[in-house]
């Protein structure tokens, strides 16, 4: 009588899954490049090609992007739990393919808004899924490091593409050359995801079976409504992370939509604007390769709180000057502060959420985080129309500082080498 050996369980860890991890880092770089194709050029298109005068109206493309990305983030977690991670990733790339074509041929601003609706869906499905897949692969010990590399890849590609599109626009015009990069990114991302990325949901299920709960940890079987309320309001760490993520993207919305206009109205050319626009996510991207791993050693809370305050200082410096060199320093501060925050917030979600509902908790967090694009476009746009560009920037600096104070007061430390003696949730 022959017996069939049961398949070996998936192995968790960065080293054990290094080829797939590196592939997912590369895929997320392409995801970031899809946003980077817009960062320098689209605000200038609104102003110079389509004649969108009011700041609030010109930022409608960010509102469209933010709403669709936020809602898609929420759906992505549930879809990846139900159908697996890879199908969601591939679907996101299919939806992203038409975006550069729409931007190249857009005869009216409504085409640009439609392109950003599709871009929001693309980003929500692809970026959310690469996050969840990396958390699946590395297990609990290296989440901060994994998120640092994931976010670094995306935002370094965003920065490089922002600089490249600025140079292309200066040399060849605002269309079509800058958006041909996006078309190449979408095609390559779809090919890699379809042919080479492997499913990781089995790793999450294996971790759930071997998971040792911490004292006071939330149950493993929770309905979607309870996951939403825990992540949004009830759990102190999850809710503090959600509001910090929202405010972080609120100020990123300001940088995306209004900084290029401020720089242009101050006399900078497109190439120099591209340098400033790229510097902020460039420092952000490089920094995350360090800060994610540091949070595995030092803890999450105080990196996040300090990072929000550093961002606030950088934003205030933009409002306070008109000098290119000082603006460059401000962009570095904003990038450094964001690097201290962005991957660490995701690691907080991974720390607290049980493996069986972690993907959905990531989706809820990213819902709130990307609603920050909407809040930023509306708050900054309306304030700029009523009181001027610099007033809008000062207001966002104040909101960002307040968010850091909330983290310092409300969040508990989530990265613990040993079980906590008592629960601090509530």
From TrEMBL:
<feature type="transmembrane region" description="Helical">
    <location>
        <begin position="302"/>
        <end position="320"/>
    </location>
</feature>
<feature type="transmembrane region" description="Helical">
    <location>
        <begin position="21"/>
        <end position="37"/>
    </location>
</feature>
<keyword id="KW-1003">Cell membrane</keyword>
<feature type="transmembrane region" description="Helical">
    <location>
        <begin position="152"/>
        <end position="170"/>
    </location>
</feature>
<feature type="transmembrane region" description="Helical">
    <location>
        <begin position="177"/>
        <end position="197"/>
    </location>
</feature>
<feature type="domain" description="Major facilitator superfamily (MFS) profile">
    <location>
        <begin position="17"/>
        <end position="415"/>
    </location>
</feature>
<feature type="transmembrane region" description="Helical">
    <location>
        <begin position="393"/>
        <end position="412"/>
    </location>
</feature>
<feature type="transmembrane region" description="Helical">
    <location>
        <begin position="49"/>
        <end position="67"/>
    </location>
</feature>
<feature type="transmembrane region" description="Helical">
    <location>
        <begin position="254"/>
        <end position="281"/>
    </location>
</feature>
<dbReference type="InterPro" id="IPR011701">
    <property type="entry name" value="MFS"/>
</dbReference>
<dbReference type="InterPro" id="IPR050171">
    <property type="entry name" value="MFS_Transporters"/>
</dbReference>
<keyword id="KW-0472">Membrane</keyword>
<dbReference type="GO" id="GO:0005886">
    <property type="term" value="C:plasma membrane"/>
</dbReference>
<keyword id="KW-0813">Transport</keyword>
<feature type="transmembrane region" description="Helical">
    <location>
        <begin position="88"/>
        <end position="112"/>
    </location>
</feature>
<dbReference type="InterPro" id="IPR036259">
    <property type="entry name" value="MFS_trans_sf"/>
</dbReference>
<keyword id="KW-0812">Transmembrane</keyword>
<dbReference type="InterPro" id="IPR020846">
    <property type="entry name" value="MFS_dom"/>
</dbReference>
<dbReference type="GO" id="GO:0022857">
    <property type="term" value="F:transmembrane transporter activity"/>
</dbReference>
<keyword id="KW-1133">Transmembrane helix</keyword>
<protein>
    <submittedName>
        <fullName>MFS transporter</fullName>
    </submittedName>
</protein>
<feature type="transmembrane region" description="Helical">
    <location>
        <begin position="326"/>
        <end position="349"/>
    </location>
</feature>
<dbReference type="InterPro" id="IPR005829">
    <property type="entry name" value="Sugar_transporter_CS"/>
</dbReference>
<dbReference type="Pfam" id="PF07690">
    <property type="entry name" value="MFS_1"/>
</dbReference>
């Amino acid at each position: 009588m022959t017996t069939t050996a049961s398949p070996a369980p998936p192995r968790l860890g960065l080293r054990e899954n290094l080829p797939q991890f590196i592939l997912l880092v590369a895929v997320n770089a392409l995801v970031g490049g899809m946003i980077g194709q817009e960062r320098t050029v689209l605000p200038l298109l609104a102003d110079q090609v389509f004649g969108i005068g009011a700041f609030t109206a010109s930022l409608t493309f960010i509102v469209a992007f933010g709403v669709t990305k936020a809602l898609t983030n929420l759906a992505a977690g549930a879809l990846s739990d139900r159908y697996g991670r890879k199908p969601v990733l591939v679907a996101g790339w299919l939806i992203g393919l038409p975006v550069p074509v729409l931007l190249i041929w857009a005869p009216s601003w409504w085409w640009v808004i439609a392109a950003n609706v599709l871009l929001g869906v693309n980003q929500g499905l692809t970026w959310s899924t690469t996050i969840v897949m990396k958390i699946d692969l590395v297990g609990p010990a290296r989440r901060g490091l994994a998120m640092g590399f994931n976010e670094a890849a995306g935002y370094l590609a965003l920065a490089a593409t922002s600089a490249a599109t600025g140079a292309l626009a200066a040399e060849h015009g605002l269309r079509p050359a800058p958006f041909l990069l996006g078309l190449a990114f979408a095609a390559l991302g779809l090919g890699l995801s379809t042919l080479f990325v492997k499913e990781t949901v089995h790793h999450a299920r294996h971790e759930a079976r071997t998971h040792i709960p911490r004292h006071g940890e939330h149950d493993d079987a929770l309905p979607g409504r309870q996951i939403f309320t825990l992540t949004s309001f009830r759990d102190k760490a999850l809710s503090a992370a959600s509001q910090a993520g929202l405010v972080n993207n609120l100020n990123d919305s300001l940088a995306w939509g209004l900084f290029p206009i401020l720089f242009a109205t101050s006399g900078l050319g497109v190439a120099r604007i591209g340098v400033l626009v790229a510097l902020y996510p460039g420092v952000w991207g490089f920094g995350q390769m360090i800060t994610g791993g540091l949070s595995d050693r030092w803890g999450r809370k105080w990196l996040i709180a300090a990072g929000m305050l550093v961002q606030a200082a950088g934003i205030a410096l933009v409002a306070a000057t008109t000098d290119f060199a000082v603006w460059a320093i401000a962009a570095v501060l904003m990038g450094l502060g964001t690097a201290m925050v962005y991957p660490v917030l995701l690691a907080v979600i991974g720390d607290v959420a049980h493996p069986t509902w972690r993907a959905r908790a990531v989706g809820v967090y990213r819902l709130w985080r990307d609603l920050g694009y909407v809040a930023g476009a509306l708050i900054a746009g309306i304030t700029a129309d009523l009181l001027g560009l610099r007033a809008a920037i000062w207001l966002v600096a104040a909101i960002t500082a307040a968010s850091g104070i909330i983290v310092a007061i409300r969040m508990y430390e989530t990265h613990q080498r040993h079980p906590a003696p008592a629960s601090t949730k509530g």
